Amino acid sequence: MSKIEERQDQSEQSESLPVGPQSTTGTGELIPVYVMGKQYMVPETLTIMKAMEYAGFKFIRGCGCRGGICGACATVYRKEGEYKLRVGLACQTVVEPKMYLTQIPFYPANRARYDFSKITSAPEEIYKLYPELFRCVACNLCTKACPMDVQVMDAISALKQGNIARAATLSFSCIQCGLCASRCMGELPQYHIFQLARRIYGSKIVPRAGHLGQAVTAISEGRYEEWLRMLMEMGEEELRSRYQEREMEPPMAGEDWVPANVEYL
Ligand code: FES
């Protein structure tokens, strides 16, 4: 199934839009972009995703969070006069004149199957499941392709050296878009390998957080049942005002921040 559907009526219409003048939407001048080879005139201020929608495309896949988090909207593009293939997230990258772009479909990289409860923290677990790890030739194309600036090649090198903690930390911002794998000449599924590394790191290497254990115990002992029932019985207005008046953690709060009212902790 295609990631995007083109609504023929609107796309035909968009092709006939003039080059140059202010758009009628008030969102900036119209510029030409090429989606899978076809020209569309779109407002210059839009992201690729919004520009494609403006041009008449409807996202049926490849559009999740719209906030640079889910990795669903990986896009490959080239600018006119350049040989270089560029990459970006359609929901974050703003269009440029004469951008030739396409969205990559679901990328069919190898994803190992495993019973995580039987996996230990030894790096050999990763080597067994992903022996292709050692096909890495350190070309660094994966790092250059990453829209999240993850040091992909360094994280792969860390794994080859048996350092799961470093690989997990380096790949923390990975959003699983698959662009690294799409450019890899060794055909590694870097993003799937990193996911396993982070699972092992979080579950079997990092010391357990004491406060998390206490919270899980409190939940299973029913500490919050009465409060949850109270919330379920509230009307919309009261719920709304409670939500708006709630005490929020300040953006730059330190590790030791606690709310003034600790009744619900
Ligand atoms: S839609 Fe989720 S990262 Fe772009």
Give a nutshell description of this structure:
The protein is an alpha+beta fold and 265 residues long.
Account of the 3D structure:
This protein is of the alpha+beta class and 265 residues long. It has helices at 8-15, 48-54, 123-129, 141-145, 152-160, 164-170, 179-183, 190-205, 210-220, 225-233, 236-245, and strands at residues 4-6, 30-35, 38-43, 57-59, 74-79, 86-89, 99-103. A five-stranded mixed β-sheet has the order 3-2-7-5-6. Strands 1-4 form a two-stranded antiparallel sheet. Helix 5 runs antiparallel to helix 6 and helix 6 crosses helix 8. It starts with a strand and ends in a 20-residue tail after the last helix. 26% of the residues are buried. Mean pLDDT is 89; it is low at 7-24. Residues 63-66, 68-73, 89, 91 line the site of FE2/S2 (inorganic) cluster.
What does the secondary structure layout of this molecule look like, with pairings?
Blueprint: E1 4-6, H1 8-15, E2 30-35, E3 38-43, H2 48-54, E4 57-59, E5 74-79, E6 86-89, E7 99-103, H3 123-129, H4 141-145, H5 152-160, H6 164-170, H7 179-183, H8 190-205, H9 210-220, H10 225-233, H11 236-245
